[in-house]
Design goal:
Protein name: Mannitol 2-dehydrogenase
Strand order of the largest sheet: 7-4-3-8-11
Keywords: Oxidoreductase
Largest sheet: 5 strands, parallel
CATH architecture of the largest domain: 3-Layer(aba) Sandwich
Helix content: 40-55%
Pfam family, one: Mannitol_dh_C
CATH superfamily of the largest domain: NAD(P)-binding Rossmann-like Domain
Radius of gyration: 23 Å
Domain Mannitol dehydrogenase N-terminal: 30-277
Number of strands: 16
Shape: globular
Number of domains: 2
GO molecular function: oxidoreductase activity, acting on the CH-OH group of donors, NAD or NADP as acceptor
Length: 489
């Protein structure tokens, strides 16, 4: 019979399952983390769990928080098991499971409760994993989206905010009034210069209602950049059954992830930080080159294979990259057009990193799906592909393969795969994207006219012409033939 998690059950974990090697009752919180999804529990929470197991920094435990309806369900699930999480590492050489205990509480999903938790002077870091689309970035300008309805609400009623950023500002005001130092705001999302994005969002919101306070935030609150990496599939009944049947644990919200992790952080934490370098994190003066490498080779690689694989009928990522049409296309695109846009990093071999990424994609234990990496293209393309196109154009480099990636996305948005099967809607802007994608079959410029996604790229002849050629080839010759043609060079 599977074991239900709780503090009292930790002394009797099934054979082969590791548990917290420390007294959880001795932990005290130093971090409030907003967005307690799978990635956070596979990444930050694992680093801290390992650190605590070394007997270090027990005053840096996590208090979870969330502002979405789904966060309440997560809170209920975790509260029932004393905020413990089963983390399974999907190593092809052999799966392993560990019960982690770095999170000791999850604040009620209520603005006042979250503000009060952040205002506690014991909290020295407020970190966030709110997805790429959760930072209120205006795709047209790549700046702060001050017109979003939730932002307008928080600007009009700063004492009753809806967003995590409004709650951060309310908590900072309370701390300032009480004479407490401000916490550090740490983004853990896959965004270029995510610390700068965080600062822009928080100060941009503050400036809409109190310019003086916005200036104080800009001058006194640290927003370090960080680069995070660990492939973490969604949890389904498949993963829950595996945790129960293979490891003997009943956990309604387990996490499965690859064994690879990377965390590179700018060392800017005025109120202190846990010694995460003791468990593998890297602290550097400038995170930007590392995050750009990851965003372009890994996240850009995901984008490159996503739509081609969906159109060719693949469901799992590892099956897709076992298809030479996909793997050869990915290698050619990254070597010819993506890696050349990266500035050298001392001690880093981009080709070795690319090969490691390909190895990670090929891991059959992850069970990562093509629909997952196809999701939310309207937000992901401007983060992972379009900046590469802009840099390549500025340097006079070729963009045929990058244009082909965008053409494959357009073909996917048309709503059917190569066999004529319907592709399920996978984007909040599905209807508009489908309309433009179908129009682009005859007029490629129609798809690029979506300014919210493409900005001014529809006025860049080098890209517009390449996109028209590649989209025409995809519709005329088919996905497979077009991929093979590009890979051959």
């Amino acid at each position: 019979m599977a074991l239900s998690l709780s503090n009292s059950a930790l002394s009797g974990l099934p054979a082969g399952v590791d548990g917290p090697g420390y007294d959880r009752a001795a932990l005290t919180p130093g971090i409030v983390h907003v967005g307690v999804g799978n990635f956070h529990r596979a990444h930050m929470a694992v680093y801290l769990d390992r650190l605590f197991a070394r007997g270090r920094d027990h005053d840096w435990a996590i208090r979870g928080a969330g502002v979405r309806p789904g966060d309440a369900r997560m809170r209920e699930a975790l509260e029932r098991q004393d905020f413990l999480t089963t983390v399974v590492e999907l190593d092809p050489a052999g799966l392993s499971a560990r019960v982690t205990g770095a999170m000791t509480d999850f604040v009620e999903v209520d603005p006042e409760a979250i503000i009060a938790a952040m205002a506690d002077p014991a909290i020295r870091i407020v970190s966030l994993t709110v997805t790429e689309g959760g930072w209120f970035v205006d795709a047209k300008t790549d700046g702060f989206d001050a017109d979003h309805p939730d932002i307008r609400h928080d600007a009009a009623t700063p004492d009753a905010p809806k967003t995590a950023f409004g709650m951060i500002l309310a908590a900072l005001k309370r701390r300032r009034a009480a004479g407490h130092a401000p916490f550090t705001v740490l983004s853990c999302d896959n965004l270029p210069e995510n610390g700068h994005v965080a600062k822009r969002t928080v100060t941009g919101l503050a400036r809409l209602s109190d310019t003086g306070f916005a200036d104080w935030v800009a001058d006194n609150v640290a927003f370090p950049n960080s680069m995070v990496d660990c492939i973490t599939p969604a949890t389904s009944d498949r993963e829950r059954a595996m945790v129960r049947d293979r490891f003997g644990i009943e956990d309604p919200a387990p996490v499965v992830c690859e064994p690879f992790r990377q965390w590179v952080l700018e060392d800017d934490f005025p109120q202190g930080r846990p010694r995460l370098e003791d468990v593998g994190a890297e602290f550097v003066a400038d995170v930007a080159p590392y995050e750009l490498m990851k965003l372009r080779i890994l996240n850009g690689g995901h984008a490159a294979i996503a739509y081609a694989s969906a159109l060719l009928g693949h469901h799992f990522v590892h099956d897709a990259v076992a298809d030479p049409r996909i793997s050869n296309w990915l290698a050619a695109l990254e070597q010819r057009e993506i890696i050349p846009t990266l500035a050298p990093i001392p001690g880093v071999d981009f080709e070795a990193y690319r090969l490691k990424v390909a190895e990670r994609f090929a891991n059959p234990e992850i069970g990562d799906t093509i629909p997952r990496i196809c999701f939310d293209g309207a937000n992901r393309q401007p983060k992972f592909i379009l900046p590469v196109i802009r840099d390549a154009l500025a340097a006079g480099r070729p963009v045929e393969g990058l244009a082909l990636e965008v053409a494959l996305w357009a073909r996917y948005c048309a709503g059917t795969d190569e066999a004529g099967a319907t592709l399920a809607p996978n984007d909040d802007r599905h209807d508009e994207l489908k309309r433009l994608a179908l129009a682009a079959k005859d007029d490629p410029a129609a798809f690029l006219s979506n300014g919210a996604v493409f900005g001014d790229l529809d006025r860049q002849p080098g890209f517009v012409d390449a996109f028209a050629r590649q989209l025409g080839a995809v519709w005329r010759d088919g996905v497979a033939a077009t991929l093979e043609d590009y890979a051959r060079g």
